[in-house]
Structure formats: C-alpha cells, structure tokens
Amino acid sequence: MTKSLKRAYSHADIRSTKRRRTSLDSRPEYSTRDITWEEQLRLPDRFHEAEGVWPALSILEERGSGLKKQYLLEWEPHPETGEIFEPTWVIYDNMDRQNV
Q1: Pick from 14, 29, 74, 96: CA 20 to 30 A from residue 62's CA?
Q2: Domain ranges (residues) in the chain
Q3: Cα distance between residue 51 and residue 37, in whole Å
Q4: In 3D, which of 88, 87, 84 has the Cα closest to residue 31?
Q5: pLDDT (mean) for 7-20
Q6: Rounded mean pLDDT, 17-36
Q7: How confident is the model at residue 20 (pLDDT cuts 50, 70, 90)?
Q8: Is pLDDT at 5 greater than 50 in this prediction?
Q9: Average pLDDT in the 82-91 region?
Q10: Burial bucket for residue 74 (CB in 10 Å: 0-12, 13-18, 19+)
Q11: CATH topology (fold) of 31-99
C-alpha cells in the first residue's frame, strides 16, 4: 500500500511541475520599436555593421531549398534595454552568415 501511495504522489508532483513550467514559459513580449541608426552606433561594434542590420543570435528553423532557402532567425536582445525582437524568416541571399 505504501508503494502505490508513493507512486501516486510522485506522478502528482510531476504533473503539477509541468503545469507550472508551461505557465512560466509563456510567449515573451516582443518589442516593435524601430532602433535608430544613431542608437545602433552607441552599441557594441557587432550592432552597427550597417544601418538597418541587427545581429542574429541563432537559426531556429530552415525551410525551402536553393534560391528559396529561408532561415527563421532569433535576434540578439538589445544590449542596453534587454528588449527581445520577434524571430523572422530571412531569405538566404539577404543573410550575412558570419552574424549567425
């Protein structure tokens, strides 16, 4: 009898932990603010290689092939404000592979 109670208790703990994780893993609030070139110039070098270019943190997914190859990029958070930018699909030709 003790073993079955212990197992039921363990399963209950696991289920409640999973519920807590999903509530904590809610979708992040993405910034929609445009970063000006003047602001980019004040940031570390990797943030101002060219106007309108922001460094990527990682490749999350890829789709297509050949000339239609696209990558879903996760962007570096803003180093001063901590703002997070929504991942976006980028065509391979428009991507600087050194930034990823």
Answers
A1: 29
A2: 31-99
A3: 6
A4: 84
A5: 36
A6: 68
A7: very low
A8: no
A9: 94
A10: middle
A11: OB fold (Dihydrolipoamide Acetyltransferase, E2P) (2.40.50)
